[in-house]
Amino acid sequence: VYIIGGDYVIPDDLIYAQSFNTHITIQRIYGAHMDGTAVAVLSELSSLSSPTTAYVINGAIDASCVTAASLSTENGYPVLLVDYSGPTDATLAAISDFGLTDIIILGEGVTQKTISALERILGEEHVTKQGEE
Questions:
Q1: Which residues are CB-neighbours of 119 under 8 A, at least 6 positions away?
Q2: What is the pLDDT of residues 60-89, one digit of tens each?
């Protein structure tokens, strides 16, 4: 069982109790912040497959998160999180570190600053909004 997020999502004592009582293996995947957690999940997924496309959403918008989770599961694409200030260095580094070549923007909360940063590293033709691919 994978727990996505730090101790504030599900406390360690609860995880320990569940794994002890059920004898299941539980692995927590997390980063320092939401964008770091998304990169940690990408790292785990990359050990299982080699995705070249990722979704980018504004992690502060719940509706985008729900849509991204569903599409990610359906298509096998990881989800990278940004906020209104744009992508972090960790998010931009993950794109090249994991060989991502295409980005699909989901939702309306991704700013032009983020889109411009993604287009600078991947090229304009490799960054699309959902429905434009």
A1: 126, 127
A2: 887 888 888 889 889 989 999 999 999 999
